[in-house]
Amino acid sequence: MSEQRFGESYRGTAPENYQKFFVPMIGAPVADDLVERAGLAPGERVLDVACGTGVVTRLAAEKVGPDGRVAGLDVNAGMLEVARRATPPGLAIDWYEAAAESIPLSDESYDVVLCAMGLQFMTKRLDALREMRRVLVEGGRALFELPGPTPRGFELMADTLTRHVGAKAAGFVQIVFSLHDTDDLEQLVTSAGFREVRATAELRRFPLPPPAKLLWGYVSSTPLAAAVASATAEQRAALEGEFCARWTDLPAQAQSSLEVRMTTVEAVK
């Protein structure tokens, strides 16, 4: 990748690029699935934890309608800034900048808590889950969506990042897919006080762009952006060259679409 191409195509902030590249590729289909599974009804109160740029939050607001109430919570101020800008006028959403383990909301103030691909990044998961349970009404429900184990294409991405940028950068890719065992998830959510906990997994397939666009779209959308930006132009060119060359060794279907096991956890307070 030339220096000019890197600067012009991916010059936005990581949250801006997340909304531009990651959401259409993966975030939106995951959001559609999670909100559909939640079976939201008009008038319900919904909290989206680790909301990112708000793709789940906005869908939830559309489902519950003007008589409902929806809030999005995220620790990243940049994500929330993009979420606000991406929200159409007239779609009422409250945005909160806070960590999941210290939710600044009242007890029993929501009917549903949603969390799409965020629980794996929380270092204090049990505390976060207890907070999510606290803000739910009795009988309220929580749904979490998590990917893993790591698909072959992202194993390849982690390996090439390690070789050309460093192991710390590659570690982010591994964290994304680190929490997926159904038994472990059921035990974790149950230990936070939830009941009727059920974790189910199924294979999902997401269409992928060509490998160079996948690499830089994903990198620029995540905390990997800073690490890769600090690399030299030669390192970035070598990263792209090796990644694209090795991508052709994957099975044909894996080159054009991402097959990933998605686990949905459903629970009741």
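(ticket continues) Second input and output from the same batch:
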Amino acid sequence: MNKILVWDLPTRVGHWLLVASFAVAWLTGDSEEWRLFHVAAGYTMVAVLVFRIFWGIAGTRYARFTSFLFSPQQARDYLTGLLRGENSHWAGHNPAGSYAIYLLILLGLAAAGSGWATYEELGGEWLEEFHEFLASTMLAVVGLHVAGVVVSGLLHRENLVRGMINGYKIGHGEEAISSSRVLWAVLLLGLAGWAASVAFQP
């Protein structure tokens, strides 16, 4: 097996934009002084997640949801095999990782929606507490996702973080995607920048 292109540029850019926007939102969540930055991070996260849903339908092979539709049994089997040290190869998302992606999309949209409603004072204290609960749950899922990346990377002897930076993983030639789709990544960056700027508009 050789190094092959698996992750297109919009997928990689979206991944790191989501990391950055969630980190900023989390760090500024309790600060009144940085409130607009918190809101801007939330808007950015929504823009990235909406694009990710679109890209999950229209993107390249491993970005599409159809490439990582796994049953709970498949996810359990993968985790069991991981604990046994079995070296299973997945060019795209593995069965356990796929569930983290679905959860992060759902939690991210729910957290952003409840945060917007709280910011617009559409709900009481219960809504603010629910928003904080969703953000904390999302952080827990992120922690599990990172732990899974570290463990599976060590057991499979593959640097998954580097793959999400340069787009390359180990695989067979026929598994590779043909293009990085650079223009779509530029569009995503523009969309994220516009979304962030909305928070600072009067």
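Agent notes: The chain has a mean pLDDT of 93. Residues 3 and 169 are 5 Å apart (CA to CA). Closing as not reproducible unless the customer responds.
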